[in-house]
Design a protein that fits this description.
Number of strands: 8
Strand order of the largest sheet: 1-2
Order of helices and strands: HHEHEHHHHHEEEEHHHHHEE
Radius of gyration: 21 Å
Number of helices: 13
Distance between the termini: 31 Å
Low-confidence stretches: 295-303
Mean pLDDT: 87
Amino acid sequence: MNLRILDELTPDPKKFPDFTDELRQAMQQETSLFFAEVMNKNLPITRFLDGRFTFVNAPLAKLYGIPGIQGKQMRRIDLADDRRAGVLTQASILTLTSNPDRTSPVKRGKWIMDNILDSPPPPPPPDVPDLEQASKAAPDAPLRKQLEIHRKKATCAICHRQMDALGFGFENFDAIGRWRDTDGKHKIDSSGTLPGDESFSSPIELIRILTKRQDRFCRSLSRKMLVYSLGRGLEFNDRCAIDRIVAACREDAFRFQAMVIAVVQSEPFRMRRKKESSHEWFQDDSPANVPAGSGRHDGPAPA
């Protein structure tokens, strides 16, 4: 989830004076602990999207408007309102998909397409104007209107229609993940429509739509886990292995451990192809050909 990028980000201190290194660390810890909870309790992977719990300490609880939390120790809480659920409403993800001085529906939408929907958008055309030009054309307009001007080119609209809609679904959260109902003098409009005419009017409604697309999320997460376990990028011939991993997860209600087992049982993890262009696999357990950290030649666990 690229949480390390948070260490390199510094939101505008004039606009976000509450953002401190202590808060940054709490953001990272929240998402790491949340991930571990889903993994250790073998919850369905869709809990990453709609989990109604999280981990906070006093600084993070203050950002979220949650009363009664004291101290720096992170603790598990159930979410009582309908504003937050899962990683998409956690401050870490909302901050790393924002600009230093404002939110970025484009970055947030792209992150969802890359990491949730397994449909990364193509690079923008080289002649696309930047948002600053659109801002000059309508300096007092809300961000949604500025982006409408920005994507007037047909080549831009194809991708931005879905990407921007996904990002605007989380506009109730500012650039450090704090809830808001207005942006300056403009009322927040978090509504949108996705391909297939699925409409939403709030972050939670959008999350419910994304949660139903569990096959696509499973495929995206499977790809990332296989890349991590192999220590290399995926190739065209790995697509069948991904299909089998997704099928295995589906048979076990998309539980996290089903994905882990399917990854380590996959042919790319256990074997090597005879040739780069070959579809045939063979077992190769020589230490030189086993990815570091895979556990296949790590010896017994230390006492």
